[in-house]
Design a protein that fits this description.
With 919 residues, the protein is mainly beta. It has a domain at 2-138. It is built from 6 helices and 50 strands. The radius of gyration is 35 Å and the shape is elongated.
Length: 919
Amino acid sequence: MKTLLLLAFVFFTASGFSQNLYYGNVSEGGIPVPGASICVINSSRCTTSDFNGNYSIEVKIGEQLKISFIGMKTKIISITNLNVQKNEQTVEHILSDDYSKKLKKPTDSLKISEPSGTFNFNLLDGIGEDYLMKIDRSDEHVYSLRYKNKYHKLSFEASQEMFVSSPMRMAHYQKTYAQGKSVNGKLTYQSPETNQIFSWGPNVNTLEYSANPSEYYAQGNIVNKTFGNENSLQLYNPNGFFKNTVDNKYLINTQIEGPKGNFLKINFAYKTGRISIPSSRNNELETSVRYFRNVSKNSRIESILSFDDFENNLPNSNFIVNKIVFANAVTPIHFDNRFASALSNGLQRSFAVSENNPYYLIQNNMDKNKSKTISFNFNHKYTGHKNSNTVNTSFQSSEITNTNGQGFYFSGITTPNFNKRTERFTNFSVSDVFNHTIDNGFVESKIDLRFQERNLERNYFSGFASPDDFPNNSLNLRKLNVVQQRFEIFYNANISYTFQDILSYYDELVLKASTNLNHSSTVKGKFMPNFLASAEIKRLFDEQLSLSISQSYNQVEPSLQNNNLNFNSLIYNLGQFKELQNNLELITPKNAIPTEEINTNVGLVYNLNYQWNLNFSFYHKRVENLYVPIFSLNTANWSPDVNYKQNGVEFEIQKTIYGRDLTYNFNFNFTHYKNKVVSLNNNLSRIPFAGFKDVNKNYIVGQPLGVIVGNGYLRDNNQNIIIDDDGFPMEDSEPKILGDPNPDFVVGFFNTLKYKNFALNLSFDWSKGGELWNGTQQTLNYYGKSEITEKQRSITNYVFKGVTQDGAINTKAVSFYDVSLPVEQNRWTRYGIDGVAEDAIEDATYFRLNSISLSYSNYSGYKKINYTLSFFVHNVFVLSKSKTAFSSNSMFNSLDSGGLDYFNAPMMRSFGSSLTIKF
């Protein structure tokens, strides 16, 4: 810490009062320190130093002065002897101990600490308005001044945040062709009664409504247009199905603060919103009570009680969101799903019995999620001269209930089903952390005792006799009930020590070491060792240059449970999409093998002219026994079978430019990494972990993590595509690696511009390289609903590049859609609903203006009412090689399925505002 240099002297007034006016000066390195706080301990007498560092304050013998300033070491001065004679106007100068030491050793250098904080307002603003009683330092290292008028007050904070979001980067659909196909060499419209799924029919301009309405078409059944009639078909844009959303968050905080820093804080928050699917809704209620009390000068206690209640009526726990998007997308452009979702006989009203109406799925949705969580935390912290000790206890109890099912008349479902999944979690922990400070470092010891219990109960219902029985009255019931308990003891020891003046006068060498010994009742061998060692040298070669290196080894036990859509979908082929169910559970086995992780990091930090911060780091990571799902007979086991390594570099530039009323800050960071699967346990050749049975992400030895595997075109030894006798490329029956979803590098650029009370923030991100699988496009091509098939279905005399099965150069010309042939033989439908996955691989590169925000704040520590008003936009725009799919818009809203697109919910561009008022 910087040391306060205090030049103090006493002037005794002629009044004869027992209190004397004490004059002093605060300086650092001979430079006056204005705004320092000077208080008589255990009294309300406080003052601050003026522009020249001078101050005066009433004192009496035996009292102590506390002099403090932000970023400097606090000083305590005792008033022991005034040495004055009555009725004389002059006194002997009394020097503080600190000033005497400075006189004896005037060449001592001042040791400057690491940056300890910043003001959130100008320090000088409030001088003279009231007594300065306290300086607070937040967890974010922001200091604020506390004046007498801030105590014994009730304060409120209220805020409201609103988002309006609209879908973006939507699929591109054809707008020309009707339901149907070629019949006897002629494009023929086929009505819903024919259960035709294809939109390979005639131009909609050749059709009209008849005078005979039906349950499918209220305007009249569709017939071929006759001369003179103008009863044209009404067309529907599938993207019109999605809705703009409005999300709101309301927050109210109340705080009562006492004169000793004690306070009681009550928080209440309510959030409501929805996704772009009609009728979706989620609500969340959060509330907490926090109490903080200084028990003594060196001791404090804190307790927090919180409660969270969440409900979502469309959580996608059983693929329902993707199924709704699918049903909407493949519907012919002239079929109005909104008109009705069911027929008079109770059956689903759709353009074909093998397809769903998205509104029918919404109205009969069984995917719902509810959760309640209550938690309590209590800690006691003691802080002495060189020792501190914190005791913490915490308890959490939660219940999560998910229901999902597929009812009567759902297309693709032969047997209606319903299940209810309830998880109850209980967590309890007690920890003690002891810290001892030494001259140039510290020693810390921590012991942590934890108990976890998970109770999973899942009931599967089936065998419903009629729609009236669904979902409560089933003939068959299968139960899954698993109770898991884990008791853990964590012991951790840390030490840090700083050596000074190693290579030059101002440098420092900081050595740190940490070791853990963890015991778990559910891990094999019961014990898991961990360690960390690091060294950092600062101000190297008399420059603002720091070099660091660290090495760590960690063993981590897997969580007690895992249930997600990623591995549940792996037992289904893409053509079975409408049948998908989330029925499988991954249960962590007893005597689990821990996952091991070894990390090596090298970092370099350079401060150029105290204005530019340049950071560079290199890391190497090796992971052993990563847990993955392993399938056998339609069951999944949670098994530690993947070993991989990853190397990466990160580079960051930070710069802040200051003006009189303007501040500009930017942060530029660059990340590049490469990973590779080193080996798989149990003699496995590859392990799929997300996607479908026939198109998935994988761990394969020698390949990057998550490579995309699927079918491709058949090729000869020279990688020429082999063309069949019909003139079209042949499909390879063997799956192959098609793409790597990992980017070559990622760049982030963050900007903050502040002018007086205004703040403007902009953030950009750029991801270069990597591939994604756009399965949505392939299936739309199959149905004849894509914009591509609209533009290309009339192409004729096209020769595919490749060789025939005999090895000759292909010369056979084809038509993409020859109406004289069955529709199943055209360019796209011949390969099935999933197409050829190789065709669906797209470049994942993108550049995005991620967010813009503008805010105005009148915040000041001296105003009774403070407010902040903000406006912001997220996902402002995206430029990418793929026009619809986006690598960050994962298939099932999970990182594991990133890079896969199969009727994902659309990306959203959000416009929002927030208002926060404090008084």
